[in-house]
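Journal club prep, shared notes

We agreed each person brings one worked example of a sequence with its structure written out as tokens. Mine is Ornithine aminotransferase. I'm keeping it raw so we can talk through how to read the token line rather than staring at a rendered picture. Sequence first:
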Amino acid sequence: MTLTVRRSDKDLQTNVTDELLFDSSIDAAHLVVLANGGVVTLSGDVGSLPERHTAKRAAMRVAGVQAVTVDIVVRDPGASGAKDSDIAEAANQMLSWAVDVPSDTVKAGVRDHVVTLSGTVNWQYQREAATRAVMYLKGVTAVANTIRLIATTPASDDLKAAIDGAILRNAQLDSHQIKADVNGAEVTLRGSVRSWAERRQAEKVSWSGSGVTSVKNHLTVTA
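Then the structure, token by token:
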């Protein structure tokens, strides 16, 4: 039994490494991949925050990966020449130009090259859009999203039925393996999925429910 697990982890480590090397947007020369029981750990350093996120997504799309831990750091942010004040000015300008971030709802502060987003929006996709708007700026090493969700309408009594229907309609999801529990404006997902892509899709579907302010994703990825 032990030998089987080790062989599987070795294969997983090789496959994730190959995927990182295959992706032209990742400089994998400074990355290290470890696998243990289906859990992949990425360490090392990259040149930018988007590259860090891309490396994580690359590992997550490899078959057999059940979880990903990212210990990658963004190297030498000062090399970009950007000061915290420069990044803050650029970040707030990007937020003001983003079509999917409501005007005058989100502000960006910067300390030690880490951008902190604050404010309130109505939908999760707007929170995610705010992160995307600033993460590609030079010198940014991390984004802390503290934006609060305030739903414009309360969650309806038929929210569970609406989410169940959306999961059933979605060609990327196996609705027989996914259970959505609804408590007020909070959705909890349980069950099993075949990949991280399916897990993310189920969460995205749940966030689309009207009035949802919290999604707890307890779906497990089965190899």
